[in-house]
Amino acid sequence: MATPFPQFEGKYEIITKLKEGGMGAVYKVRHRLLDEVRVIKLIRPQLESDEGIRARFLRALPEHDYAGVLVALAVGDQRAIDGGLWQLFARTGITHLMSISGLHVTMVAALGAWLGWQMLPVIVLLSSVVGAAIGIGLIVFKGRDHNVPLAFGPYLAVAGAIGLFFGPTLVRLFFPY
User: Fold this and answer.
1) Same structural domain, 149 and 167
2) Which pLDDT value is given to residue 3?
3) Whether residues 11 and 88 fall in one domain
4) Quick one: DSSP state of residue 16?
5) Binning pLDDT at 50, 70 and 90, where does residue 73 land?
6) Interatomic CA distance for residues 149 and 38, integer angstroms
7) How far apart are the first and last CA of the chain?
8) Helix, strand, coil % in the chain, rounded to nearest 5
9) How far apart are CA 82 and CA 21, in angstroms?
C-alpha cells in the first residue's frame, strides 16, 4: 500500500488500516529499518496541529531523549522518538508500548485517582493477565492471527471493575508488607 503520509516516508510501509476513531486511525505497518511489524496510531491533522502538549514536553525536557516517548504516550505522536530509541525498544520487545494511545494512559490515571494509586500495579497486572488469557484463547481455539493486536481498553475496564469490588483484598494479597 502506498504511503500517503509524509511522516511515514522511508520509515514505515502501511500494511492495512485496522481502525478509525475520533482521534485518528490505527495502522498495521512494517518498520523498514527494523523489518518489524508494528501498530501505530496516526492522529487527525486538526488534533496534531495543536502543538501545545507536544511543544510543552519538548520545551520542558530539551536535553532528554525520553521527551519523545512521553509525547507518544500522552498524545500518540511518535515523530519525536529517536531511531536509536526505536532500536532499543525493538531489542527489548517493548515497541508495542508506543502504540498505546493517550486514552489508555488517561484511563489508567483515572482508575488510579478513583481507586487509589496502590491499585495501579494490581490493575496493570490484572488487565495484562486477562488480556493474555483471552488473546491466547483466541489464537488457540479460534485461529486468530497472532500478529493482529487486541484492544487493551476493555481489559483495563475489567481490571478496574475487579479493583472496585475487590481492591483492598487484592492490594493486601499482592503487597502484604
Assistant:
1) yes
2) 47
3) yes
4) E
5) confident
6) 9
7) 54
8) 60, 15, 30
9) 27
Indicate if 66 and 118 belong to the same structural domain: no
Cβ atoms < 10 Å from Cβ of 57: 23
Residues spanned by the domain of 70: 6-99
Of 99, 116, 149, which residue constitutes the final position of a domain? 99
DSSP annotation of 22 = S
Percentage of the chain modeled with pLDDT above 90: 6
d(CA 46, CA 25): 13
Tens of pLDDT, residue by residue over 122-151, are 888 888 888 899 989 999 999 888 777 777
Q: How many domains does the chain have?
A: 2
Question: What is the tens place of the pLDDT at every residue in 101-113?
Answer: 556 777 887 888 8
> Which residue is it, cell 488500516?
17
**Nearest one of 95, 97, 116 to 105, comparing CA atoms:** 97
Indicate the SS3 state at residue 69: helix
> Tens digits of per-residue pLDDT, 37-69?
877 777 666 655 456 767 777 788 888 877 878
